[in-house]
Amino acid sequence: MNFFQGEILAIDKPYRISSFGALAHVRYLLSRKLGRKIKIGHAGTLDPLATGILILCTGKATKKIESLQYHTKEYVAGLQLGATTASYDKEHTVNYTYPTHHITRELVLQTIQQFIGDIQQVPPTYSAVKVGGERSYALRRAGEEVKLQPKTVHIEEIELLDIDPTTMQMTIRVVCGKGTYIRSLARDLGRALGSGAFLTSLRRTRVGKVTIQDCVNYDHFAEWLDTIEIDFENN
Fold it and tell me: What angle do CA 73, 77, 78 make, to 5 degrees?
């Protein structure tokens, strides 16, 4: 492999590590192995509380990042019904609770259909969306109110994998296009069910044709480098 000429890698990003933090770790290990700095970027951010596929491009392959971001993605998401948080996930504590006695498996199956196709979605205010040159999450953490505009996103599939009528927790599989926020989908699904919902877990399981099975283990990346043939030429 020639990381200077350009390689496209996939790692399985762990929980509570930012995409930039994961990239920095891999860049450090690669640079140490190669004996000099290597250019590297990622194609599609994952929240720190999310796990799964993070595509990394090295060297000249960083030119492909923009096109790679348009690849279809698949997620498996856990949702808690009957409550909301400010960030639509577990980063913040519950701020409101809602009734769930009327929610049945059949109602969920009917409701998720309205989110398939091209839909309007408002990004979470706790996100990296820029507002006047500043990141939205930074403004929110500074105590400022932020209002984001809806945008069109495409959701190809939503499948209900499981729902527990006792805990009101459910698991869905989502296949979607670029720019879709699963946290916003959780928020909107909760509202459509006449209740509330927030994300309890999120795992990116596919990007284009890349699956979890194709990923390099993040914690053993250095060991993986020792098993491959590396071309050290920088042409």
Answer: 180
What residues are annotated to the active site? 47
Q: Can you tell me whether residue 194 is helix, strand or coil? A: coil
Helices (H) and strands (E) in the chain, counts: 6, 14
**How do residues 22-70 score in pLDDT, each as one tens digit?**
999 999 999 999 999 999 999 988 989 999 999 999 999 999 999 999 9
Q: Exposed, middle or buried, 202 (CB in 10 Å: 0-12/13-18/19+)?
A: buried
| pLDDT tens digits along 114-129 | 999 999 999 998 888 8
* C-alpha torsion 92→97→98→99, nearest 10: 120
DSSP 8-state class, residue 150: -
88 near 186, Cβ under 8 Å? yes
Q: Which helix (H) or strand (E) holds 2?
A: none
Alpha helix locations (H) across 8-145? Answer: 19-34, 65-68, 105-112, 136-141
Q: Is the dihedral of CA 37, 43, 47, 49 positive or negative?
A: negative
Distance CA 7, CA 63 (A): 11
Taking the C-alpha atoms of 96, 102, 106 and 107 in order, what is their torsion angle to the nearest 10 degrees? -50
**Whether 66 contacts 179, CB under 8 Å:** no
